[in-house]
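Protocol step 6 of 9: fold each sequence in the batch and record its structure tokens directly after the sequence line. For illustration, a two-sequence batch is reproduced in full.

Sequence one:
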Amino acid sequence: MSTELSQNSAINRVRTIADYQFGRGAGVALFPDECTFKLSTTKRIRYVMLDKVRIATVRAHDGRFTLSIEGAERLWQFLPAPVYRVSVAEEVAEFIMKGKNAMAKHVIAADPDIMAGDEVLVVTGDDQLIGTGNALLSGDEMMAFNYGGAVQVRSGRSI
């Protein structure tokens, strides 16, 4: 029995994880058939690449994805607003595009289904993607709190 993953097996695996994490259909939207994979030393999928650009990383401790800004853009195009989105005030968009964290007092809208620890898309009020990161609060808490961090931004994107 081979320990190497076939291309079909690997693409099916990452699509299944994405469907679980982001909802049905997200796997196909995020990962086209042309994706390639970088494996860890234990032969597990670590990075998902498209045209030699990393679009997602599999977190070793829970098997979920963290997205690069390229992966976040693919997900943003697929998911209808407000799913997995945190909208922030225009005056802080510039800072978030530079990779600074989104604070709760600047959140103007958030998907109520977001839970702390989820991978989220940070958008402006008019739904322009400006960053991606890890939710520090639930969607409801982001709206209720006036202080503290809401999203730990991993990477920003200029419009």
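Sequence two, same batch, same settings:
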Amino acid sequence: MKWLWTNQKVIFIAVLLFLCGIILQITRTQMVLKMVDNEDILEMKELVVSANMNKEQTSDMNNPSYCIVYDETSVAIKNNAEKALEYMQKSTRAYDVAKGQVDYDRCPTILLSTPYLKDLGTVEDIENYVSAGGQLFLMNVLEMDAHFDILYRKLGILDFDDFVMTNGLHMVSNLLIGTTGETYLEESLNDVSLGVALTSEATIFMESTTKNPLLWKAEYGEGTFMVFNGGLLSEKSSRGLITGAVSLMEPDYVYPIFNTKVFFIDDFPSPIAKERNDLIYKEYKKSLASFYQSVWWPNMLKSAANEDIRYTGAIIESYLDNVTPPFDNVEDKEYVYLISFGRVLIQSGGEIGFHGYNHQSLTMDQNIASSFGYNAWTSSEDMEKSIRELQSYTKQAFPSYKVTTYVPPSNVLSEVGRQALKNSWPELTTISSLYLEDLTNRSYVQEFEVAEDGIIEMPRISSGYVRNDSDDWAIANTLTGIGVFSHFIHPDDIISTDRSGGSWNEMYKEFDAFMKDVHETYPWLRAMKASEAAMGIASTLQTTSTIEKSNNVVKGNIENYLDEQHFILRTDKKIGRLENCEVTKIDDGTYLIKALAAQFEVTLKE
């Protein structure tokens, strides 16, 4: 009996210790959840957004740095040039050829959007302007007219033939940062260019895969001709070519960038289907939930640690398609996944954003909703109720956490939906949808900007686990133009037939190689969660930077300086003495300047 009593005591103590361990773990978990606090983001928001709202819009129309000549057929090229130069904080003026000729005396640099040299005036006008030190960027395939016949040698062209088809682009230089030797758009480009051979004095930056020159520079007198031989500059994805070309037209060129790398996981955390997925079960012998917890998420965290990524998850509460109240179905609430995934997401340096109560885009247009298989909302009030329910759901898991970023389901957001978000969500700071054009006109397409109502618009550039031709081109251009890598994926891409496809093992290898390539090519990018990136972008947007160059000294002055700012410097010279800044070489003849004060200086050496 004594032996039995002793064993019972041992068992009792063991059970008691086990229960205490569980209680302690639960207590620790609750403490962690309650301690997750990001109030500093909202404090920073007030500072940078108010600075943007109070920024005086200065436009030097009488003395612009860049003049853009266009006609009704080249408006898209003109618009892209204006926006690229706006991000570079350069003043511009547009000249419509139907309303008169460009004023050479007021234009240090001219960008011609049309294919006609005659739109700039006489042959003598053009020759005299460039010879005297003017910079002329020809942004369209030129017509072989009388002006061309006289000027083509001065443009760096030795001989020319008829128009030819262009399939694929080969980067001869690093006009796009980090791309020397790379080939793009082999599978998707069908463009037209003029068949040309260049003089030995011309500097070529880009050619077709069949070796036809597409972008080059020719010095003439004291000035420069920059010639683009294609139609790509009408596309938003090619804006980096404009930035790169402008930055190489004159020596020791400096322009600001945002310098951020941000990565979104849409639909994460979210409810996970309970039924077995045949594809996953065949490969891993696991349920979908078990696969995400034990395979997918550890893989994603490994890539984040190795390739310097901070994830922003955009959560979904329910996959039911209801667009009318009530929105508090107890069966929908998956706190286990929200807490387990969300906690690690935050602890790994990432953050939680909102995707929606469910995956029904906030639009009342049934035609748009139907194109995605969704239901249209019937009122803004119902939209607001769904957002409030999502906030309540999140607060149950993370009581002190402030969610500030919104990602529209399927990248669709109407004006009514946007207002509903503002009405029901006071902490809303950032909306992240799409950057590139949408030919269907269904998507919420954005620029990087602070909207008039104070919301930071911060679009995504690329998507998917597996890289593709078009995204690679857009990434290279956007990194050169504004210094941004912004990408998104969905956890369920592996089981979705209309997204990436293939096995997870294959997909993950390609994804990890993709992220490794980005990290190794652009190691200088600052990995950020969405809220940090938004604050950094808004901080840069509210500044006005001026650059002065004299006697091999580059001087920068930043109005409305709040925090460190970043610039690209293109120069063939060596870096000397630095004042209030740090300089890092990121490519041949290309440097990243980190400005640590409102005034900074970089001394260059021959």
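Proceed to step 7 once all outputs are recorded. Observation for sequence two: Residues 270 and 316 are 5 Å apart (CA to CA).
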